[in-house]
From TrEMBL, chain A:
Keywords: Cell inner membrane, Cell membrane, Membrane, Sugar transport, Transmembrane, Transmembrane helix, Transport. The keyword Cell membrane applies. One of its GO terms (cellular component) is plasma membrane. It comes from Streptomyces adustus. This is Xylose transport system permease protein XylH. The keyword Nucleus does not apply. Residues 408-434 are annotated as: Disordered. The chain crosses the membrane at residues 21-38, 58-91, 98-116, 122-141, 214-232, 239-260, 292-311, 332-360. It comes from the Bacteria.
Automatic annotation (TrEMBL), chain B:
Pfam families: ABC_tran. One of its GO terms (molecular function) is ATP hydrolysis activity. It comes from Streptomyces adustus. It is found in: Cell membrane. Its main location: membrane. NCBIfam families: GguA (NF040905). The keyword Amino-acid biosynthesis does not apply. This is Sugar ABC transporter ATP-binding protein. The keyword Chaperone does not apply. PANTHER family: CARBOHYDRATE TRANSPORT ATP-BINDING PROTEIN MG119-RELATED, XYLOSE IMPORT ATP-BINDING PROTEIN XYLG. It is a peripheral membrane protein. InterPro entries: AAA+_ATPase, ABC_carbohydrate_import_ATPase, ABC_transporter-like_ATP-bd, ABC_transporter-like_CS, L-arabinose_ABC_transporter, P-loop_NTPase. CDD domains: ABC_Carb_Monos_I, ABC_Carb_Monos_II.
Length: 434, 515
């Protein structure tokens, strides 16, 4: 490995899609800097960052589920409608039957699970393509929302609103910052450092060369720097504001699902199904169960996102969740997932979602109309995926990779054969019978 | 005998891919009206050379000259070479399955009249072309409804539609059964009579020996030698020697079988076709496997060998009707793939690319995919153990790769097959079913795979080998069952096995010896 690819690989984790992620993170940084300059420093103010998180956290939550759906080779068009349906059911239940709000949340998750089981059943056990099942679901649950709510808005009680509009409370001595947020930041820093050392140890146990110390150093410095900066921004906003509760829910979900998809057998199975369903089945993966769970999980997360949105806007309405599915899908694809399934990461999707969110936010700060915002978002999605397709065709993964190419001395032995001749004679024909 | 005039001469062709020299100073001389075979191991540069010739790698991307019919030619794309009458038929057929034979024959080349397709002319010409290649089918039949052998013929007929002078066939018989292969080879001889020159790339050396006039051998991107079959007394061993650069004493490693008791038995195995309910793909098949034994399944393409194997492996094919499976004297239930894996079965599919591997995976992920629980603690995969396992297999199976983190797509066919073998060895099976384990891989890798199989049986496992290549079965197996139309029609021991006997049993329903 040459120095540059080494650095690149080590800075951004060790998966195959890391180069893509590198591209996305640079894009994100570029967008932040661009808007930071353009808006005269508005983008990175405490107030704006907090607003971005509370405004887009539900889309990012959807992106987590959508990533898994897309990796498994499906799509879910119904998430917006499912969110809206759950929102109205929960709001109605709390308003008319005055059930306490914690129970309301449980109810909402249950609704999501039931809807998910319904969609998962059709996709996994009947074999209807998810596109159709969820297109039907999109209509079904949108209609359901309007039927239950009489196409009207239903307000939700105060306690419930916290999950969408609440913040970490102020506790402890007056430091001028939100203390819990500071604590959170500290934990994050420790977590990052611990993970880094765990990773180095793992590499050593594999007898692979761990990244040189200076790379680890840079990597840690960058990450800790970002965390410290974010912590201070989130902790130092208007009194009473801090990291939104919805943001905390998001962080917990991202960590949990990243771990699940990356490190567990269940996660491996999702990628296996998306990469080659038949091969996965013949390797003992329970195909139907994986598909069922992935679809069901998506609806549960959609239900959660719906409740957060309702909580934030203090009422459930007939227009909730419109075109959320498109935002979530866009986030996943910008984040480097493959349209044909099998590839993609949670972190990539989150970065993709943040790109969209910051783009939206920055353009809004500049007073750009929603017409232009949509046009720009459309182009970003197209270009991001086009770049991906192009770089795959070229057999290189990123601009950085291309730049680094002349420095790679060992390329001849990394690819035992050139890709063109690797297919020389081993391209077996697909046949069923022997 | 005077040598016929030269049709094609490729002079010192050198083609470099980033970092790799695929062809180094390769020369090829093809005489008019001959059948010229190109042999070489995978990666020797055969396909690259043909891509240079046909303009897939355009003029300018390589160095050297191509002299065709006395002229120095420069092809910039396939279209240009086809206009000159050079047609290449790739291993992967370029046919549209949902279209008829006629439609496929004239795809992109449709006869027109006043702006619309002249189907009448197309139909008539289609019949003529099909006649030329000996294809007797209704021209309106859809491609997906005819077998691979006939599809191959459609491809060749398509070449004739373009007025071919030089026909290049890349592994034309790789997917064909013996009868179809024979037909194809006869066809090539017929073309020779009519003055059409053919270049054939094939791994099946017996076919090459039978049909070729001249053989050019490539190794590591260089021309090693050109053999005149009519003059030099060339045989398979001679070709292999040129390909691998050493004399291969035996195509199979030495092995003394140590065969134990019967431990696996299948009785009355009957399975219905997945879509047509009244068709049986396995008809009351029964067989046994002993510990330490390599059992072969011989049969023509479509005889039902794969169907038998896959239906046993957790009912992965068709609808189960009846049958019992016994292992170590106890009946076992194999209702799903996890059942089969738990009971110590492993199935290595004949088609590693489409159903054997997830081509997006890297090597280590592929190797552990069938038994993740072995490297996991409380459902969490341990990357260190995964890596260690993969490294062990990389070394013990001698998989050529710089690292187990590489993607499996980057591997050659033989190394991919080793990865699949590792994947199933990792599940600690007692019985491995290997479906066409050496298809499309070169001689050297085949030898290694045979060695791996022998090591497996030496550990007391049983191995079933399904193969279309009779010499392979005869050389490798301790006992061979023959399969014909879903039924087991015979059982032949190593001592008695010869191609004629097997072929007879593979093509007739008369039961001779059934367990």
């Amino acid at each position: 490995m040459s120095r540059i690819t080494d650095l690149q690989k080590n800075l951004f984790g060790g998966t195959t899609s890391n180069a893509r992620q590198f591209g996305m993170i640079s894009t994100l940084v570029a967008i932040v800097l661009l808007f930071q300059i353009w808006t005269g420093g508005l983008t990175l103010t405490s107030g704006n960052l907090i607003a971005v998180v509370s405004q887009y956290s539900y889309i990012l939550i959807l992106a987590i589920g959508m990533l898994m759906v897309i990796v498994a080779g499906h799509i879910d068009l119904s998430v917006g409608s499912v969110a809206a349906f759950t929102g109205i059911v929960v709001a109605k239940a709390m308003q008319e039957y005055s059930i306490p709000w914690p129970l309301g949340i449980v109810l909402g998750l249950l609704v999501g699970a039931v809807i998910g089981a319904w969609q998962g059943f059709w996709v996994a056990y009947v074999g209807v393509p998810a596109f159709i099942v969820t297109l039907a679901g999109m209509l079904l649950f949108r209609g359901g929302n309007q039927y239950i709510g009489n196409a009207d808005t239903v307000p939700v009680p105060l306690g419930f609103r916290d999950i969408g509009a609440g913040f970490l409370p102020e506790v402890g001595p007056d430091t001028g910052y939100n203390n819990l947020t500071l604590l959170l930041g500290l934990l994050a820093c420790l977590g990052v450092v611990a993970r880094e050392f765990k990773a180095r140890q793992t590499r050593r146990e594999m007898n692979a060369d761990a990244a040189p110390l200076w790379v680890t150093g840079i990597r840690l410095a960058v990450m800790v720097g970002v965390i410290v900066f974010a912590t201070l921004r989130f902790a130092g906003g208007r009194i009473g504001t801090s990291v939104p509760i919805s943001g905390i829910i998001l962080i917990v979900l991202v960590l949990a699902y990243s771990y699940y998809t990356r490190n567990t057998i269940g996660g491996r199975h999702i990628y296996a199904v998306g990469g080659n369903a038949r091969a996965a089945e013949l390797s003992g993966v329970k195909l139907k169960r994986v598909n069922f769970l992935v679809m069901m999980n998506m609806s549960v997360l959609a239900a959660l996102a719906g409740m957060i949105f309702v909580a934030r806007s203090a009422a459930s309405g007939p227009q909730d969740g419109l075109s959320w599915e498109l935002d979530a899908i866009a986030a996943v694809f910008i984040g480097g997932a493959a349209v044909s399934g099998g590839l993609g990461t949670i972190s990539g999707s989150i970065v993709g979602g943040l790109v969209m969110a910051l783009l939206n936010n920055g353009l809004q700060l500049e007073g750009v109309g929603s017409d232009m915002v949509q046009i720009i978002k459309g182009l970003v999605l197209l270009l991001a995926v086009a770049f991906d397709v192009y770089s795959k065709k070229q057999g290189r993964f990123s601009i950085i990779g291309a730049l680094a190419r002349p420095f790679q001395r060992d390329q001849a032995d990394t690819s035992a054969e050139p890709p063109k001749t690797a297919t020389d004679t081993d391209t077996d024909k697909a046949q069923v019978a022997g | 005998m005077t040598r016929p005039p030269t049709l094609l001469e490729m002079r010192s062709i050198t083609k470099t891919f980033p970092g790799v020299r695929a062809l180094a100073d390769v020369s090829l001389v093809v005489a008019e009206g001959e059948i010229h075979a190109i042999c070489g191991e995978n990666g020797a540069g055969k396909s690259t050379l043909m891509k240079v010739l046909s303009g897939v790698h355009p003029h300018g991307s390589y160095t050297g000259d191509i002299v065709y019919r006395g002229e120095n030619v420069q092809f910039h794309d396939i279209r240009a070479s086809e206009q000159a009458g050079i047609v290449i038929i790739h291993q992967e057929l370029a046919l549209v399955p949902g279209m008829s034979i006629t439609e496929n024959l004239f795809l992109g080349n449709e006869p027109r009249r006043r702006g619309s397709i002249d189907w009448k002319t197309a139909q008539r010409r289609a019949l003529e072309l099909m006649e030329q290649v000996g294809l007797h089918e209704d021209p309106d039949t859809l491609i997906k409804d005819i077998g691979v052998g006939k599809q191959q013929l459609v491809e060749i007929a398509k070449a004739f539609a373009k007025d071919v002078k030089l026909l290049i066939l890349d592994e034309p018989t790789a997917a064909l059964n013996e009868a179809d292969s024979q037909h194809l080879l006869d066809l090539l001889r017929g073309f020779r009579e009519r003055g059409i020159t053919s270049i054939i790339i094939s791994h099946k050396l017996n076919e090459i020996e039978a049909v070729a006039d001249t053989i050019t051998i490539l190794r590591d991107g260089r021309t090693i030698e050109s053999l005149d079959v009519r003059a030099d007394g060339v045989n398979e061993d001679r070709i292999v020697q040129g390909m691998v650069g050493r004399e291969l004493n035996s195509r199979f490693p030495d092995h003394t079988p140590d065969i134990g008791e019967v431990f696996f038995e299948v009785r009355d195995w009957t399975v219905k076709h997945p879509s047509s309910e009244d068709r049986l793909v396995c008809k009351g098949s029964g067989f046994t496997v002993r510990r330490g034994e390599i059992v072969g399944f011989a049969g023509l393409m479509g005889a039902g060998r794969t169907e038998l194997a896959m239906s046993l492996f957790g009912r992965s094919y068709g609808h189960y009707v009846s049958g019992q499976v016994f292992k170590d004297g106890r009946e076992i239930q194999l209702k799903s793939v996890p059942d089969a894996i738990r009971n110590g079965l492993a199935y290595v599919s004949e088609d590693r690319k489409s159903i054997g591997l997830n081509l997006l995976d890297d090597i280590k992920t592929s190797m552990v995919a069938a038994k993740l629980s072995k490297i996991a603690r409380r459902r969490v995969v341990d990357p260190v153990r995964e890596h260690r396992v993969a490294e062990e297999y990389r070394q013990s199976l001698r998989i050529k790769t710089p690292s187990v983190d590489e993607g499996v797509v980057k591997l050659s066919g033989g190394n991919q097959q080793k990865v699949v073998l590792a994947k199933w060895m990792f599940t600690d099976p007692d019985l491995l079913i290997l479906d066409e384990p050496t298809r499309g891989i070169d001689v050297g890798a085949k030898y290694e795979i045979y060695g791996i199989i022998q090591r497996l049986v030496d550990q007391g496992k049983g191995v079933i080998v399904i193969s279309s290549e009779l010499p392979e079965l005869i050389g490798l197996c301790d006992r061979i069952y023959t399969v014909f139309e879903g039924a087991i029609t015979g059982e032949v021991t190593r001592q008695d096995a010869n191609p004629e006997l097997l072929m007879k049993k593979m093509t007739s329903l008369t039961k001779t010896a059934t367990p």
